[in-house]
Every structure is written in structure tokens, then in C-alpha cells.
Amino acid sequence: MMREQKVFFMVGTGFVISEIWKQLCLTFVLHGGEYQWWYFPFQLCSIPMYLCFPLAFAKGKQLRNCLLAFLADFTLLSGTIAFLDTSGMYYGYTPLTLHSFLWHVVLILLGIYAGTRCRDLSIRSFLGAAGIYAACCVLAEVFNLCFDRFDIINMFYINPHYYMGQLGFRELLAFLPNRAVIMSYILATIFGAALLHAGWYGVRSRK
Length: 207
Fold this sequence. Notes:
The protein is mostly helical. Helix content is 67%, strand content 0%.
């Protein structure tokens, strides 16, 4: 296994182990053995946990470039934006709070590493990354609509049954219906990732 592949394998393994620990703590330490669907690991900041292993073993260049572009663009964006509003990163159990902050720091470092390893920073690779994001949004909505009858669940913060609560977008509810705000949030995420992709392209071009 090449060095780059080993990095993604080790990071993915660390993500999985720490996520299992987090879910156990949330269920048995904070909520008396009752599972909370709100914390199901399928937020934008959770997706790298699922992508590191394909990156460790994928052979096709096109697939690898799309996965690397996703981490360099969408993961770096999500990890960075999380620190603009850290209210959701605090728990009633200090180790979980530390885990949350460390997780997002690792996301930023992982995004930077992926950006330096991405061989193709063309529009094609970004469209592939955006396609992965769109597919994740669809799957998140499936989770939302199927499981919110059992508990509060708001994967990717796009459940139409809950008002948008993300910083900078919840204020739009005074002017737009909730579904329009959710769509604005999705489009803004893609736009922000596109700006990062353009930034990576600029850095590569100068070199």
C-alpha cells in the first residue's frame, strides 16, 4: 500500500473507531441507553469517514480524483465553517466536546492534504465531487423522511419538517419559505466548495 493510501486508511480507521466510541457515549452515558437518531453519523462532516476507505483502495484515477476533490472542497469547507458557530460542538460530557473539536480539526487537515494530493483540479473533478455531495443530500433526505417519525433526525440539516437552523440561513426564514431556504443552503454549499476548488486550481497553476 502506498504512503498516500496508508494515510487515508489510517484516518478512516481512526474516524470509525472514534465514531463508535461517540455513539456509545451518546447512547449510554448521556441518554440512558436510548439511541438518539439526531446523532446518526450522516452529516456532511461525517462523510469523510465513509470516503477514506475507497480512497485507500480505489484504482481508477477518475474516481480517486473525484473523491480527493470532495475532501479538498466540501470537507475543508464543512470543517472550517463549523468553527464559525461551535454551539453544536458542545456536549454534556467533556470528552465528547473534545472529540467534536478534534474531529473538525482533522477534517480541515484532511481537506488540505487531499487538496495537495489531487492530480486533477479541472471542472470535471469538481463536478464529480459535487455529484457525490448531491447523492449524499438525496440519501440524507431519504433518512430524514423515513426515520423522523421515530425521533428527531435532520441529516445535512435539510429535513423539510424542521426549520433551517444554520447560521446565516435561518435569518432567511423571515423572507423565504423553509424549503427555499434549504435549497439556498445546498446551492451555497456547492458555491463555497467551487470557490475552494478554484483556489486549489490557482495554487497548482502558480506552481
